[in-house]
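Illustration: Holliday junction branch migration complex subunit RuvA.
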Amino acid sequence: MISSVRGEVLEIGLDHAVVEVGGVGLAVHATPTTLAGLRRGQPSRLATALVVREESLTLFGFANDEERELFGLLQTVSGIGPRTALATLAVLAPDVLRRALVDGDLTTITRVPGIGRKGAERLVLELRDKVVASPAAPAAVASAALNGANPRRDQVVEALVGLGFTAKPAELAVDAVLAGEADADASTLLRAALTRLGRSR
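Result:
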């Protein structure tokens, strides 16, 4: 298992980055928040998980070991694959996710696109005893601050498109959030827009 990679960031896409390790460029899929913390041409370290399928090897990257562990834990639940697990971490910060699982907060969990009420119930049933919630975890905690995210609107719209949303709904969701929270940083903006898009499905 490849548990981490460290090297120069060669490329940053909408849903992945390419990190050079020992002369080899590794494509690492990650959440928009994690990708926003990387800088092209700069060295970086990502905690990683390698997902092996018969037809492919896919590397997923995370800002820290905690996110990687939650990524693996989510996939122990029937019906939750790596893409849904990654989308969950894109919408819910680790503290928020753990608190929702422990409290049985289905409303919070169903903010994740692709997870309906039955899926949320299954997650709570199978994982609530496997996680420990931090005390007083706020419902809108951002897992990482984004530096130099300007213009925020365009960056977040691109990130949403990279997650599979079409451009127009993504733009409308971001604009709606900005109308109420004009000073929101890019990480908060992304999570709020994902919440709106999840509700609209």
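Reading the tokens back as a structure: Strands lie at 4-12, 16-21, 24-29, 43-53, 56-62.
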